[in-house]
Write a structure and sequence with these properties.
This protein has two helices and four strands. With 78 residues, the protein is of the alpha+beta class. It has a four-stranded mixed sheet, covered by helices on one side.
């Protein structure tokens, strides 16, 4: 996903729910509107949790991918 310019990266690999969502929430809160966070995790629950969090908070997921047991989300701060 090299076409998406990222401003911050967050590695949540090895963490279980709810830590990836909580750490994403904190990381996004420290960013300014328009910046993009790339978050990578291994928690299967993130496939449902991250879109739900995105919808609740209004911070859109620009893209996501699943590759070799890792889930990556590109989230734009609203």
């Amino acid at each position: 996903m090299s076409e998406i310019q990222i401003d911050k990266e967050l590695d949540c690999r090895g963490m279980s729910c709810p830590l990836p969502v909580l750490k994403t929430k904190k990381a996004v809160s420290d960013m300014t509107a328009g910046q993009v966070l790339k978050m990578t995790c291994t928690d299967q629950g993130s496939k449902k949790d991250m879109p739900s969090w995105s919808e609740r908070t209004g911070n859109p997921i620009l893209s996501s991918e699943e590759k070799e047991g890792e889930f990556t989300f590109w989230i734009k701060k609203a």
